[in-house]
């Protein structure tokens, strides 16, 4: 392996760079995990040194994309957002009847659409000053949330390692009619629990997620326990896979479990 799993497994605390390296290599992630930081102080936000800021207004999905795929540290505030759903979920504005009109397509019922809107996870109204997204491996601050775009079997392994690392036997998630990424971040932050949801219309079309992936969110304070469990488990079994016999290199090798026709023997 290119990664020294044995050495990492002996460390009491991993750096964010080591966490990212372990997760990207062992889970075979397609994208960088994204560290998300919420700024509640205007001065702290203004003084934060980012590599990039949005030019035109963007969605949260597009802003996170720059960290997930282009390795940039980005900061943004309400003035940078064109996505009304994100403004509401991040507490930059209050929910309104006008916003309900855009939700009726999900319910075919205006009153129930309003109920669905008001049930979304939201950060405290008027408190957030801005936010940062950065590749986990180069985050300059402790993240509030770590956001990942993963396939189903990657999610399976990540969440199982969360369970093992945090000693929490089951997990439950929050799905809303849209606002998958912004609402997913808000719910993870508010509840301090992992979250997983499908793409919404915005995250599918604006977030460059065309391959049917899932959105996954881990509380920032828990990412060390998750990554630590991953490297300890891999060191014990020889590989990260939990599918079939443990210890294979690829998490989610696409073969039938215990199929007698898929069997290898030593070469002569």
UniProtKB/TrEMBL annotation:
<dbReference type="Pfam" id="PF02596">
    <property type="entry name" value="DUF169"/>
</dbReference>
<protein>
    <submittedName>
        <fullName>Uncharacterized conserved protein, DUF169 family</fullName>
    </submittedName>
</protein>
<dbReference type="InterPro" id="IPR003748">
    <property type="entry name" value="DUF169"/>
</dbReference>
């Amino acid at each position: 392996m290119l990664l020294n799993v044995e050495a990492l497994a002996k460390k009491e605390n991993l750096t964010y760079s080591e966490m990212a390296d372990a997760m990207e290599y062992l889970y075979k992630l397609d994208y960088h995990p994204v560290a998300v930081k919420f700024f509640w102080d205007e001065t702290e936000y203004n003084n934060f040194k980012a590599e990039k800021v949005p030019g035109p207004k963007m969605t949260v999905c597009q802003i996170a994309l720059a960290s997930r795929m282009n390795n940039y540290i980005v900061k943004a505030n309400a003035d940078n957002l064109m996505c009304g759903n994100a403004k509401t979920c991040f507490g930059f504005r209050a929910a309104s009847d006008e916003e309900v009109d855009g939700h009726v397509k999900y319910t075919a019922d205006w009153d129930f659409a309003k109920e669905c809107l008001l049930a979304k996870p939201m950060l405290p109204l008027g408190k957030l000053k801005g936010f940062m997204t950065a590749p986990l491996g180069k985050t300059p601050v402790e993240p509030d949330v770590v956001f990942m775009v993963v396939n189903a079997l990657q999610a399976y392994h990540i969440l199982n390692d969360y369970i093992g690392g945090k000693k929490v036997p089951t997990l439950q998630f929050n799905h809303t009619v849209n606002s998958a990424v912004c609402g997913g971040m808000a719910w993870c932050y508010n509840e301090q629990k992992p979250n997983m949801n499908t793409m919404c219309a915005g995250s599918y079309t604006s977030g460059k997620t065309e391959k049917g992936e899932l959105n996954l969110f881990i509380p920032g304070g828990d990412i060390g326990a998750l990554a630590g469990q991953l490297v300890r488990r891999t060191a014990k079994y020889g590989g990260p896979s939990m599918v079939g016999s443990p210890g294979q290199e690829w998490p989610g090798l696409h073969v039938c479990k215990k199929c007698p026709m898929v069997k290898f023997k030593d070469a002569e």
